[in-house]
């Protein structure tokens, strides 16, 4: 049986990036290099791709504007979009996550990294839903990170920053954590300090009630990193904290320090 190759549109005003991407992907996918978002919307009138690789910084219509337009049109809203970017600044990650980007690939990219990101988006069997608005990578060889936060944009940002290296689960409803912990055994918790239904302090106490999590590292995510908050968190068993909004390198560095 011959399988139809999936279509990928690669949108970047940099010709070398388009040619590099096409060279990496052409043996596995139908690749359509496009020099602008304007060209993208022209071609979308002719056929729909399975995935769009979209540069953030482009003249006239940038990646954010293009993504916003894609998500607002029901014809294109379900097409996964991966941002191509030369900068991993936290503002871009948060903004892209809020708009619904499926992931980020740093430029210059390597062949394996590009292929891995694309495969994760194109193979829904690689995603395991635990609760509404939560997800995790399927690989059994990765360390497990569980993020609990009532803010969906923060959870999307965490997933975008970590999913390549870790098996990431996100939970927007902290009261459902006990149920989740019966099915998943995280190697590290990222817990929001301030949530309306239950505080991060209370969640740490709840986590420690599970024998297997007596010493599992917990990192607080907080926009209120006062001395008193940090001191209380440490007393309750948190190993670290990170201020929101956070940078990708800072988040990854803190996690690596505690579980690797």
Provide tags for this entry:
single chain; elongated; 260 residues; Rossmann fold; five-stranded parallel sheet
Structural commentary:
The protein has 260 residues and is of the alpha/beta class. The chain folds into 2 domains: 7-122, Response regulator (Rossmann fold), CATH 3.40.50.2300; 144-259, Response regulator (Rossmann fold), CATH 3.40.50.2300. The protein has helices at 15-25, 37-44, 63-72, 90-99, 111-122, 152-162, 177-181, 200-208, 227-236, 248-259, and strands at 7-11, 30-34, 51-55, 81-85, 103-106, 144-148, 167-171, 188-192, 218-222, 240-243. It has a 5-stranded parallel beta sheet, sandwiched between helices. Strands 7-6-8-9-10 form a 5-stranded parallel beta sheet, with helices on both faces. Helix 4 packs across helix 6 (152-162). 36% of the residues are buried. Mean pLDDT is 82; it is low at 124-139.
